[in-house]
Structure formats: structure tokens, C-alpha cells
Amino acid sequence: MNQPKICELLRDQRFEGFLLVRTSDQRTGGNGSKYLDLNLADRTGEVNAKVWDGNVQPPMPGTVVKVRGGTLEYNGRLQLRVERIRAMVDSDDVELSQLAPCAPETPDEMMGQIMETVQGFRSEPIRKIVLEMLRRFDEKLQYYPAAQRIHHAERSGLLHHTTGMLKTAKVIMDIYPWLNSDLLYAGVILHDLCKTEEMDSDQMGVVRDYSKEGLLLGHLVLGVTRIQEAANDLGISGEPVVLLQHMMLSHHGEAEFGSPRKPMFPEAEVLHWVDLLDARMNEMQTAIAKLKPGVFSEKIWSLDRRLYRAEYEELESSQEG
Question: How many angstroms separate the CA atoms of 202 and 43, rounded?
């Protein structure tokens, strides 16, 4: 499949090729005319696209479309103005592996890092619970994203988020060695596992919607339930189970973000901040990558701010001077 990569697109460039539909909405402009607002992706990135034809129906997220059009710059961000769009057909020679944004490491590599950490646990109850939870969600972990849109929204993004947090948690353990490493690392590994039940994702890592359980309960409550089920099956009770369940309930930090309890012991507090840090750094990295140096992004609703891509080359040159 020979077509330009999204990460290499420039302003005023022609594009024709196949892209993955991440989001798709029909909207109404200020003049009353309808248009399509799309986010289209390949494995190198994502671009916003507009179809200024009110008769075109929005394609389903997770499907592949062939588009033809040209790029322009709007508010410092690249945009694709689509002139023609159609769904992929069986006769198209499309390499789907080139279209889905995916984690920078393979699922096997990331799972290996997690399993190596678990095998180092000194607490037998915690080790058994974590291994049982990983066993239950093993298949979906291979491809599930960490979120629909906000952070690590990529194939195997949940593993990417988890291993990134583990690396940060291990550095924190060097600074605060009095923390219980088994508890902290277990909280990291378990905290988002039930997003595989909260969201409905295809094997390309595209989330079409949230499940009924996800909307009614959410992954925090589901996580508490699944930990209890695993502990019951293993014949484990007491402190290890309750502490892990509290980490599930509290890792969002505040009630306004979904946590009915604030973190009430140090490892739970660290889990909250490591989760927030890794999510925000990924979100910022994704947003900054779409900007030119010296340009501000549009307001990012999840961060409630605009971002700025610093002109690092000028910083380096000024240091040399």
C-alpha cells in the first residue's frame, strides 16, 4: 500500500489513499448546511478531516475509507479537505496493519515486562490475584486501547499505559523505598484491566462505544468486583484483597472524576499520580506532535487548556550563545 503517511503530510499537499475512521459526525455549519467532521488515522498519526457535502452519510468508526483531497492549515493544525470518499471494498489492496495506530512495543514485549514484575512479588496472595486477573483478561489485553479518545487510544494502548506506569513506579520506589512495591506495582497492573469490559473495541483498537456495564458501573466498580471474584476463587481474603480494591476505587483521586474514595494509604496515592502523569504525558505528546514549533493547539477539552509546542531549537542555540 503506497500512500503518504499522516505524520509526513504537509500543508497544500494532495492525498489519495485509505484511512481508518476514528470518529465520524455529521454537523451543521453556521449557514445551516451539513458537513462531515472526521478524524482519520493510519498507524503514524491522526488528522482531522472535513467533507463539505451534506449528502454524504458519516462512515462508522472502525471502518476503512478511501479518500481523495488536499491538506490545509487551520488554527495551526493540519486538516484534510475531502473531495471524494468511499468505503473500502474487498477488491482493494489494503494492508490493515498500516492503518491502526498502535503501541510502540509489541504486546508480547509489554506483557513480558509485566510478567517479569509479577514474578518478583514477595507477597504470595498479591501475586496470585494479579496472575489470575491477567489470565482472565489475557486475550483482550493483546489489542485493547486504554481509552476511546483521550490517552493511549491505540491498538495495545492499555498495555502501553500499564508498562509506562510501571517504569515510573519503579523510579519512585528508588526515591521512596519504604513504600510496598508489591502493592504499588499490583495496583498499576490491575487499575485499568476492566476497561476491557467497560469499552467495546475491535481488534484494531478502535472503540465503537461503551458497554452497558461500562456505562452503568464503570471500570472502577467492575475492577473491585473482579478482584473479589478472583480472590474468592483462590481462597484469599483479608488485607491484600481490601487494599487492592481500595486502589481500584480511589485511583481517579476525586469524586468528580469517578472515585468514591480518595486514596487513603501511600501506595494508593502514588498510583493516582502515576496514572494521571502517564495519561497526560501521552495526551500532550499526541497533541504536540500535530503542531509546528511556536504554535498553540486548539483548546483540549480533557485538559481544559491549549498547548504550546516550544521552539526547542531556539532554546539550544541560545544556550550555545
Answer: 15
Domain extent, residue 150, equals 107-283
Provide the phi-psi class of 240: left if phi over 0, else alpha when psi is between -120 and 50, else beta: alpha
Please check whether residues 196 and 236 belong to one and the same domain.
yes
- Each residue's pLDDT tens digit, 212-270: 999 999 999 999 999 999 999 999 999 999 999 999 999 998 888 889 999 999 999 99
Q: How many domains, the chain? A: 3
Rounded to the nearest integer, the mean pLDDT of the chain is 91
Q: How many Å separate Cα 161 from the centre of its chain? A: 7
H-helix or E-strand containing 14? strand 14-28
Of the candidates 105, 222, 202, 223, which has an alpha carbon nearest to the alpha carbon of residue 163? 105
CB 129 within 8 A of CB 230: yes
Distance CA 274, CA 267 (A): 10
Strands (E) in 53-112, as ranges, are 64-74, 77-87
How far is Cα 96 from Cα 20, in angstroms, rounded to an integer?
A: 9
Q: Please say which residue of 98, 118, 149 terminates a domain.
A: 98
Q: What angle do CA 8, 13, 15 make, to 5 degrees?
A: 80
**Cα gap 178→48, rounded to integer Å:** 47
Please report, to the nearest 10 degrees, the dihedral formed by the alpha carbons of residues 23, 27, 29, 31 taken in order. Answer: 150
Task: Give the number of other Cβ atoms within 10 Å of residue 86's Cβ.
Answer: 12
Looking at the domain assignment, is residue 1 inside a domain? no
Do 271 and 309 fall within a single domain?
no
Query: Which H, E and C letters describe 174-228, residue by residue?
Result: HHCCCCCHHHHHHHHHHCCCCHHHHEEECCCCCEEEECHHHHHCHHHHHHHHHHH
Angle at 136 between CA 130 and CA 141, to 5 degrees: 90
**pLDDT score of 317:** 66
